[in-house]
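Dear Dr. H.,

I hope your travels went smoothly. While you were away I took the liberty of generating a structure for the chain from your last submission, since the lab meeting agenda had it listed for discussion. I wanted you to have the full record in hand beforehand rather than looking at slides cold. The sequence, exactly as received, is reproduced here:
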Amino acid sequence: FGLTTSYRVPRTAELTEERITKLVVQAMRDAGNPGFVFAPVRRQALRASSGTTPFDGLFLALSFFIIAAALILVSLLFQLGVEQRAEEAGTLLATGMTQQRLRRLWTTEGLAVAAVGALLGAAVGVAYAALMIEGLKSWWVGAIATPFLSLHVTTKSLVFGYVLGVLACVVTIAMRLRSMRKLSI
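The corresponding predicted structure, in token form, is as follows:
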């Protein structure tokens, strides 16, 4: 009824939340219920702040997109390399090498390139992540609202990522070679 929109009443031993609520409700009944609403503002604020945007799902989806794009690039680059070596392949096949043995040879070459690339990628990836964390802690601290980030790298995650990366590349290369098996000598 004027300029006051809320009252803050500190809790004491004899004046609990339930007691205050009873007194105010009774006073409002006596006044004819002027339209006051009791709201647990702190509880509502905590509940509202706990349900934030699920960035884990967004980052996972972005990661899958980047991995799919990288595998498509591997496939296309490997196909280009094979097409540039078409004469070599024709000569090897004409001299008696089987297509299966040629595919195995090129898959082994792809495995060697993927192994070296994944090793370099893991090292560059850790360095890039460290740079991003430092950037977030210093230059872009407003984006995260806390400067207490730290990089967490384990041997297990590096090995797991390395092995899966190499395996994904070799499978992609093998699939590309399999799709090219119908080409003539």
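Two observations you may find useful: The chain has a mean pLDDT of 84. Helices lie at 17-31, 41-50, 55-84, 86-94, 99-137, 141-144, 155-179.

With kind regards,
E. W.
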